[in-house]
Each structure stands twice: as C-alpha cells, then as structure tokens.
Amino acid sequence: MKDYAGADPGFDPDVYRTLLESTLAIPWRIDWATMTFAYIGPQIEPLLGWPRGSWKTIDDWASRIHEEDRQRVVDFCVSQSMAGVDHEADYRALTRDNGYVWIRDVVHVVRDETGKVESLVGFMFDITERKKTEQDLLDMQKRLETLSFEDGLTGASNRRMFDNRLETEWKSACRKGTPLSAILIDLDHFKQFNDRYGHIAGDECLIRVAGALKQAGRRPRDVVARFGGEEFVILLPETDAASALHLAECCRDAIDDLQIPHEGSQCSTLVTASIGVGTTQPAVRTGARDFLAAVDRLLYAAKQQGRNRIVAATV
Questions:
Q1: Residue 230 known to be catalytic
Q2: 3 state SS of 212
Q3: Residue 282 and residue 184 share a domain
Q4: Per the residue annotation, which of 230, 231, 238, 249 is the catalytic one?
Q5: Of the candidate ranges 91-100, 178-187, 279-288, the one whose mean pLDDT is the lowest
Q6: Would you say 30 and 58 are in contact if contact means Cβ atoms under 8 Å apart?
Q7: What's the predicted TM-score (pTM) here?
C-alpha cells in the first residue's frame, strides 16, 4: 500500500510511514469509489487480532463492529460521508478472540477539485479504558442516586422518595381516572421495645419488618417506604379498596410471622402493628397531602381501638 492516508507528495513517504506507525492511534484510508482500504496501520493487528491484510473492504470493517452497534454506526458514517461531512463515532470493535474493544473512529472526508468525495482518511483510537471509567462513574452516580432515595437503616425507600412518588402517582391517577391506595403501618408500643431490648435490637427489628413488608408489596410500582421512626407506608397505584385491604392483611401476617418477642407490649407478646388503609379516587381539586392525612386518621383509629388491628376506608 503506497498511499499513506493522504500524505503530501513532497513529503518523504518513509518518514511519513514511520510517524503513522509509531503512534498508538491506528491510521487508515478508504477509497470511496471502490469502498476498499488503501491503507490501515499495523497497530490494528495487536489491538484486535485481525491480520492487517484482512482489512480489504468496508464490509470487513462493518462485520467487525459489535452487532448492537453495527447498524447505528454504519448508517451514521455512510450518511455523513456521502454528505461530505467530517465525523466521529464510538463503537465496540470485535476482536478475533470474540471479545471487543471500544473504538473512537475520527473520519475526514477528502474531496477532489470538483467537490466529489474521493476518499476517507482517519484514525481509530482505543478508548476502552475511558469507556470503563465513564461506566464506573455512571454506576457510582446511579448508586448515589439510589442512596439518596433509600432509608439508610432498613433499605426501604425513604420519605423523600415516597413524597416524590406520591405526587407523581396522584397526577397519573387524576389523568387516568384510576384509584390510589396507601397503607400506613405503625409498630405497636415500640418505645417500650427499645426500652426493654435496647436500640440495637430495635434497629434489627425495623430491618426485619422492612424486609417483610417489601416481600408483601412486590409489584413494580408499589413503594414501600420508612415514613419515620417505627412507621412505614406503602403506596399502591391503581389499587382498589378490596385489594389494598388484602395487602394490608398480608403485611400484618408477615409481621406476625417474624415472631419477634415483645414482652413490653400491652397488646401481644410479639411485635405487632396498627394499620390504616385508605383508598381514594384522586381529583385535581383535591390534594395528595389531604389523602395522606386521611389515611393517618385511619391509623390513629386503629390505635384508639386497641392496636394490633387494621382500619380501612374509602376516603
């Protein structure tokens, strides 16, 4: 291959070749009329494993792009090249041993004196480490976002997450005309539990209860959150009164099944819960906060009636 990526004819080709082949970037040139490689740097073989001589046509390049990236990258590069626009593309290039390397292809379109596309010249850069760093940062950001909406003790959603979802689901229910339910759960005589068994045991109790509640409310859109202290709340989008009451009963049974001793309780020898269950048909003229306050009153009624029970109503 005597033509080195558009070298100046007055420049010593041996010197130019030495420069091209000493860089970590991989130079290449494609003849536009024949869609064949006029040149590709020897760096391609140690990077991807494909013999330098096997890069003959544009089809060889396309077939060695990861199938998830191939159509997007080929369509983009061809359209930009036809339009005579310089461009670059990131993609996963397949290696000969069935792995892949992240490549950034930087492309310059060479035109003849009439403006017609004559060739494409460019450089491939190995950006695998950069992509790994970007993914690590993205994963860290996602984790931080998760932590900002997660209760640090129990792993349930926190109050911030619940408040955000309550507003979102309220608006959604208003648009769709669907019911919205919520369950408020308060562990009975929990101060006495901490006084008798200590705060470490109290924390462990909350963790176990949160786990049981998350198992009970497992639909993708349900939100199980720690509401504060020993209170939990479950938000139930598109859930009618009968279904909400059934889930509340499952939650109560799940807490009973934990069999956590509570000798300081005035209503049982085990940890129990008082539960308020409310269902409403959201409307623009009313507010999500008013709905939550109504459910809280149902929880208060359960406590007033002796605790360790469920009070449910349409509000």
A1: yes
A2: helix
A3: yes
A4: 230
A5: 279-288
A6: yes
A7: 0.60
